[in-house]
Amino acid sequence: MSNLDVLNAILYVAEHGCKWRGLPAYFGNWHSIYTRANRWAKGGVLDRVFLALQENDIISLQIDHVSLDSTIIKVHPDGTGALKKTVLNLSVNLEVDGLPKFTWLRPMPERP
């Protein structure tokens, strides 16, 4: 698989917004393309390629909108509405704590 084929596959994913697994079969094995694209991105190769393509007016990219899908953003458990773990330390003095915020029912005595 040539570098040009991989670049075309990357552009296809960017243009159509599909997943790597959704690449048409004529591009080749999607995992091989993803692996090479990931390696290029980490190594700065993609930045240099796209900069050269823009400087030579081969492609024209302009990013004016950014969208984040909530399915990819991880939320801290505190933000999900989960109950928080709190320690209940009530003093005997009601003047310090104020009125209790719950109702305590004494257990009923057992009948003989």
Poorly predicted regions: none
Rg result: 30 Å
Instruction: Determine the fraction of residues in helical runs and give it as a percent range.
Output: 25-40%
Give me the count of strands. 0
H/E element string?
HHHH
Structural class: mainly alpha
Mean pLDDT: 77
Tertiary shape: elongated
What is the overall number of helices? 4
Largest sheet: none
Strand content: under 5%
- How many angstroms separate the termini? 87 Å
Please describe what this structure looks like.
Helix content is 38%, strand content 0%. With 112 residues, it is mostly helical. It has a domain at 3-55.
List the helices and strands and how they pair.
Layout (H helix, E strand, L loop, with lengths): L2 H14 L13 H14 L1 H11 L38 H4 L15
What is the compact description of this entry?
With 112 residues, the chain is an all-alpha fold. It has four helices and no strands.
Key descriptive features of the protein:
single chain; 112 residues; mainly alpha; 4 helices; 38% helix; 0% strand
